[in-house]
Design a protein that fits this description.
Blueprint (H helix, E strand, L loop, with lengths): L1 H11 L1 E4 L5 H17 L5 E2 L5 E4 L10 H4 L5 H8 L3 E11 L8 E2 L18 E6 L9 E4 L21 E3 L6 E5 L4 E5 L6 E10 L21 H6 L5 H10 L1
Antiparallel strand pairs: 1-9, 2-3, 3-4, 4-11, 5-10, 6-9, 6-11, 7-8, 7-10
Length: 246
């Protein structure tokens, strides 16, 4: 099955993995989000994008989310795509508000440059976890398959938007995708809130992708060598805090 999954990713630049989080993990994470929205309101930033709120520091207060940073079920796929120097880059939680009567939007964009070769053409890898059920009546995460699966980075106009895939799945579903792939938050008219967790991974030998997330020491302190390796290239904000506070 893993061979088939990797072949699909190699061709399309994304992969949907059911049941990446258990029902209990989803319940626990959603309860942590509910708590954090009350206790750490200032950390939740209104992005002004049709009801999108984001917290890039939820890990600091929510150890329930640790499993999403280095998900055991997905690690073999992630390590094969990225190689032995796979490392943590970013973590965030996103909430898309219900939109029963508002406008719709599908804003296509890339999150990163390419500069990676075959077979996977992936310089930075992202994983998205659905924390609520996502179907044709809700907001979705959407991709244009294959738009990063070469060394060329063509503009959006070069691609056929009718090939877009609006990805659905129950809570606990994960989506792996090449961060250079054209993708979008597909905002629909819906009475449902959509909750997601987004992580990014890179390589220790490469430049960091972002400087947003502060990674708590508990993620690697006292852990096995592979886990410590995964967190061994902290971003500048995490380095600064480690230097100041130990």
């Amino acid at each position: 099955m893993m061979k088939e999954q990797l072949e699909f990713f190699e061709e399309n630049g994304y992969l949907v993995v059911p049941d990446a989080l258990s029902a209990e993990e989803v319940r626990s994470i959603n309860a942590a989000i509910d708590r954090d929205l009350v206790e750490n309101t200032a950390m939740w930033i209104d992005r002004g994008q049709m009801g999108r709120r984001q917290n890039v520091h939820a890990l600091l207060a929510c150890p329930e989310m640790d499993v999403t940073m280095r998900p055991p079920m997905l690690l073999p796929l992630m390590s094969t795509i990225m190689g032995k120097d796979l490392c943590a880059e970013e973590h965030s939680v996103m909430l898309r508000a219900p939109n029963p009567d508002g406008d719709t939007e599908c804003h296509w964009h890339r999150d990163a440059s390419g500069d990676a070769g075959p077979p996977y053409y992936t310089r930075y890898l992202s994983v998205i976890f659905y924390l609520t059920d996502v179907d044709d009546t809700t907001h979705t995460f959407s991709v244009l398959p294959g738009t990063a699966q070469s060394t060329e980075r063509l503009p959006l106009e070069a691609y056929d938007l009718s090939t877009a895939q609006h990805l659905v799945g129950p809570a606990g579903t994960a989506i792996l995708f090449n961060a250079s792939t054209f993708h979008a938050g597909n905002v629909r008219q819906t009475p449902s809130e959509r909750r997601t967790i987004h992580i990014y991974c890179g390589r220790i030998t490469d430049r960091y992708l972002s400087n947003h997330t502060i990674f708590p020491r508990r993620l690697w302190a006292g852990k096995d060598e592979a886990t410590q390796h995964y967190y061994s290239r902290p971003n500048p904000i995490t380095q600064l805090l480690i230097g100041q506070f130990g």
